[in-house]
Amino acid sequence: MRHYIKVELLRMLRNKRYVIFVVAFPVGFYLLYSNLWGSDSDQATGLRGSVLLMVSMAAYGALAAAMMSTAVPWSQERHSGWLRQLQITPLPGRAIILTKLISSLLLVLPSLLLVGLAAVLTQHVSLSPVRWVELILVMWAGTIPFAALGLAIGSLLPPDTAQPVAMIGMFGLALLGGLWFPESIMPAAMKSIAHVTPSYDYARIGWRIAAGETPHAADAAGILAWGVALVALALVAYRRATVRA
Amino acid sequence: MNAIAFTDVTKRYGDVLAVDGLDLEVPAGATVALLGPNGAGKSTSINMLLGLLRPSSGEIRVFGEPPETAVANGEIGAMLQEGALIPELTVAETVDFVRRLYPRPLPLEEILRLADLTELARRRADRLSGGQTQRVRFALAIAGGPRLLLLDEPTAAMDVESRRTFWDNMRAYAARGRTILFATHYLEEADENADRVVVIARGRVVADGTAAEIKAGVAGQAVSFLLGEQPVAGLDALPGTTGVELQGGRVTLRTIDLDATVAALYRKTTLDIRDLQLHGADLEDAFLALTKEA
């Protein structure tokens, strides 16, 4: 299975779409936005713009990586016959979905780390080592619900539908989570939807940690509930997709 | 020991009976062609052998074990009808990945050589032609060194040249005492590459034997000649004869043994035989006769 994970990572790093959306986008936008608003101070969180944007763009990159590395590739593998190719080898079925999940989590790391690096190098963002570790670990673990959502989409939909659904889901969650613009300027209806999304909880936890505060219990509970629900959905969808008639 | 054993296997999809009481045994080491028209149940049977489909009733054993166990133990390799590769991986990476999933794989170089892929080893899968992709899929099927190799219409997308090379490669693999079952609707392929041909139609075995036996077993052969005013009586008793037709003074004897019928016609009758014509059966006739709707 270790070799399988290696192969999965290798192929995604060679995939242009992954590299553009997941590595180039968040870093590029971080550089752009932090130049514009890096020294502003955010009223809601009390964070400097350069730190707030670092968390936002890292969160966007992580969310995008978790969904891009799962939904469409997995859907394509199911439909192209690659899944069958694996099913007739001694590889156990549960190893396939486990590998997908682990690989997806590993593929989240480049965007988290590169946005952080860009923040340190260009905006001289400095956090204590403990807080860096805390921030990265929490933001890393927080992508599990999104990877699970991507796998569920890949299991339930054919590739031509999975592609737009994953894209809309990814940008929708990023927007509603307040990763592209603050939740405070959203219209009321949008705001109430935003509050129940996992990406909103995810971003708020990140900002609180960056500000040196303990995350709100409600946010932690929110993303945990989403995590449990989406992992369960991913497992059910996987079983449904690989059931032997 | 039997590599494959189907015992009264039925597979039903809703109202459709894809496989209908199939009984088939293939001893280890044999190369067997599963010959039949589209929809005969070939792919369904192969997918059941791989545990991808479960029979509605009956029992399937691969080397004495249920298909799922045989697959988990790395006993089976297969080339299914559809199967794309991972576009971002090279040929060598793909083959090496799959071979590592098996407990007793062949060495990578040997697999590439057996599938004629040594020169393409570093090419990415999305830059392969259709025929080259088929070769990679063959390589994946043999990567684990399986004792049983299943090929479902393996040459469907190949040109004549690649087809010939493919069968040469298949025979090289079979020569090591491995069991091979391939599905095809090309008669020549069955005739040339298998030591036994199992003809299936509508989910049942309708003929089973060497290509020669199958040809002989079908009343597709005939001898005809001008009988004129001579009596027709007794012709149906000639060896091999299965039917006598008289039309406008010409009689046609259908036979399962052309040589014996003709010999007896001259030796055992006193008829004055004119304008004798022989109609031999080829495998095509045999196949059509066997698989046509009852």
TrEMBL record, chain A:
Q: ABC-2 type transporter transmembrane domain: which residues?
A: 50-235
The way this protein sits in the membrane is described as: Multi-pass membrane protein
UniProt GO molecular function? ABC-type transporter activity
Q: Which organism is it from?
A: Microbispora catharanthi
Task: Please state where this protein is localized.
Answer: Membrane
Q: Write out the entry's keywords from A to Z.
A: Antibiotic resistance, Membrane, Transmembrane, Transmembrane helix
GO biological process: any one?
response to antibiotic
Q: Where does it sit, as one GO cellular component term? A: ATP-binding cassette (ABC) transporter complex
Q: InterPro entries from the xrefs?
A: ABC2_TM, ABC_2_transport, Nod_factor_ABC_transporter
Protein name (database record): ABC transporter permease subunit
State where it is primarily located. membrane
Q: Which residues cross the membrane?
A: 18-38, 50-74, 95-120, 132-153, 165-182, 220-238
- Report if keyword Membrane is assigned: yes
From the record, what ranges are coiled-coil?
none
Automatic annotation (TrEMBL), chain B:
Query: In which compartments does the protein localize?
Result: Cell membrane
Report the Pfam families cross-referenced here: ABC_tran
Topology relative to the membrane, per the entry?
Answer: Peripheral membrane protein
Grouped into one coarse class, the protein's main location is: membrane
Q: Name one GO cellular component term.
A: plasma membrane
Q: Name one GO biological process term.
A: response to antibiotic
Instruction: Give UniProt keywords alphabetically.
Output: Antibiotic resistance, ATP-binding, Nucleotide-binding, Transport
- Residues annotated as domain ABC transporter: 4-227
Write out the GO MF terms.
Answer: ATP binding; ATP hydrolysis activity
Q: Does the keyword Signal apply?
A: no
* Matching Gene3D superfamilies: P-loop containing nucleotide triphosphate hydrolases
UniProt-recorded name of the protein: ATP-binding cassette domain-containing protein
Q: Which organism is it from?
A: Microbispora catharanthi
